[in-house]
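Hi F.,

I've been meaning to write this up properly since the lab meeting, where we talked about keeping a consistent format for the predictions we share between groups. The idea is simple: the sequence comes first, exactly as it goes in, then the structure tokens exactly as they come out, then a line or two of notes. No screenshots and no reformatting. I'm using this chain as the first example so we have something concrete to point to.
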Amino acid sequence: MDTKKSSTNQAELTRLRELSARIGNNPLLTQASTGNSSIKLDGVLWIKASGKWMSDAIREDILIPLDLADVRECVTHKVDPADRYCGASIAESEQIAIATTDAWQLRAINRLQWLTVAWMCVEVAFALLAAMRAHSVALTGFGADSGIELLSAVTVVWRFRSDRQHAEITATKITGWLLVVLAIYIFTASISTFIFRRRPEASYLGMILLLASALVMPWLGRQKRRLATAANSAALRADAAQSSICAYLAWIALAGLLLNAVAHVWWADPLAALCLIPVVIKEAKGAFEGRRCQCC
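Output, unedited:
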């Protein structure tokens, strides 16, 4: 019975997204990001987030879940709901999304995340092994970033199995600082390689791993985005973005390794490593911004 009700709720949300997109794409009804849409389902108020465009309702997840009883209490006591739902209650909003997710979706998310964890363990182990054997800064940077993404994947599993509301916020903060440290390491190690002209060896193991990652991670990212939209999970959306970024990192590092192995351009490896820094910094920025209020 619960599964049937949850499926009905998901169907209602899909219809709301379709209606929102039709209205949002009609310039006679809305302009720019104006307009709003919402629906009440089983004690949850699903409402378009401020700053989101109704026209993007199908392409993006524009709806956020709020506890309807909590909103009514705010209205009764003349408290702005935005004040209640900013900051820490973003985690509460995510928890509501988890509670309203179909059982099959939760199983699919868990399977996908454990698959990600297994793959990231392979990436970390082989990337760091190849990096040590070849003295490659690019491979070291890629392997370390994979380790941080492993933390992100475990966080999502934790998030869907735990009722600790601040789990995601704490893990995201740790991830952000780890990425900053990684960027500093890559910069320092790359400059040191240039100055002392340390020539990395060719790493065919590393190239095979990077090519595999460049092919596997986009697929994982697409699957996570699909499930994130269905489950309305901010944590899973962020992890999907990291999976896509991992593929970009793999192509960049692979280019450096290929130039070093084929053309014997030794400085291509540290140069590729330096090219990873903007992507890593963007990841760190996204992690820190993920702790801010997303309802205003």
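Notes:
The longest strand covers residues 44-48.
The chain has two domains: 2-85, 103-289.

If this format works for you, I'll send the rest the same way.

G.
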